[in-house]
Amino acid sequence: MACSLHIAWDDGLTSYNFGPEHPLNPVRVELTMALSRELGVFDAPGLSFVPAEPASDEMLKLIHDPSYIEAVKRAGRTLEPDEAFSLGTPDNPVFPDMHDAASLVAGASVAAARAVWQGETEHAANIAGGLHHAMPGNAWGFCVYNDASLAIAWLLEQGAKRVAYVDVDVHHGDGVQAMFYDDPRVMTISLHESPLTLFPGTGRPSESGGPGAEGYSVNVALPAGTDDARWLRAFDAVVPPLLREFQPEVLVTQHGADAHALDPLANLMLSLDGQRRIYRELHELAKTTAGGRWVVLGGGGYELVQVVPRAWTHLLAEAAGTRADPDAATPEEWRRFVRERTGDVPPLYMTDGRTPEFTPFEAGFDPADPVDQAIQATRRAVFPSQGIDPTL
């Protein structure tokens, strides 16, 4: 059944660009939009585009320090690094008009949140968003402004009392966690590769919320090598019970595609089909726990041709309620665009040829299995605070 979906878009969203040698290349967004268009995703009933406008300084101050905002503006003018704010590092190079580009990404996520909160649409997306590492006073992990946190903060300013944030990027959503660590109005859930093997080195189950917000920061730290079946088992064991108990007014989700086996920066082993299953599960949870109010953001993803465009096209199709046929061939016009734009060989189909299934955690706990150990550590850390028995 088709759903109403607003996509926050402006061509300037691809100007968030650290340079041709940087892993976070905006071509991934270009290729996603082109593939979605060629596959007819944008023709879905109820789908429309809403304009994205830059977040104002006053809006950015909901989550970022004024001195940091000024530093970003200054660095974008002078192109001089500013180590005090982590600007000009290998991860966060300065680039011309950096503030303009980053504030547009942030504004697009607020536009998506606004469309959902004001009842203009059931779901809304900013596929260029999901910059979840940025901190209040510094850039971090390829992220200048934290658009996910800004969208949540805007919702709280409008009177939202319960917002859930679920992050399926392979990296821990540390910036969003940090900004709402002491706020029980926001539940942050991050499923990511273990901090023992991957940046940013945070996201342990023991990071479970500050005073008065115990159990509202949720971290599932998965071992390197986790595949579709084990990842989905962990998701099913943790996320649905918490969202059913929390009953958010809005569900905000971050969809970094870098948990895929082909991603060059991480070590999880998901397939495109496993990721597609994740999108379906989150869509269903938005309907059953958040009254259908779903804000969809992009995120990381560094296999720019084979993975991100197909993954996010499936994501947008899922949010539109249409679902792209996984057995469909990628359109020839899109393949031509990929070759012209990147010089790479495009994927031929919208699937990796997998049919992901999993055994529910409740069917039995294996104390020797590292994924089950991770699941149990998370449940024990947060379930009791939410009134849920971690042993069930």
What would a concise description of this structure say?
With 392 residues, the chain is an alpha/beta fold. It has helices at 27-38, 57-60, 66-78, 98-117, 147-157, 174-179, 228-246, 272-289, 308-319, 332-342, 370-382, and strands spanning 5-9, 47-51, 123-126, 163-167, 186-193, 217-222, 250-254, 294-297. The longest helix has 20 residues, at 98-117.
List the helices and strands and how they pair.
Layout: E1 5-9, H1 27-38, E2 47-51, H2 57-60, H3 66-78, H4 98-117, E3 123-126, H5 147-157, E4 163-167, H6 174-179, E5 186-193, E6 217-222, H7 228-246, E7 250-254, H8 272-289, E8 294-297, H9 308-319, H10 332-342, H11 370-382
Helix pairs in contact: 1-9, 1-10, 4-5, 7-8, 7-11, 8-9
Pfam families: Hist_deacetyl
Family: Belongs to the histone deacetylase family.
Protein name: Acetoin utilization protein AcuC
Describe this structure in words.
Helix content is 35%, strand content 11%. The chain is an alpha/beta fold and 392 residues long. The protein has one domain (5-386): Arginase, Chain A. Strands 2-1-3-8-7-4-5-6 form an 8-stranded parallel β-sheet, with helices on both faces. Helix 4 (98-117) packs across helix 5 (147-157) and helix 7 runs parallel beside helix 11.
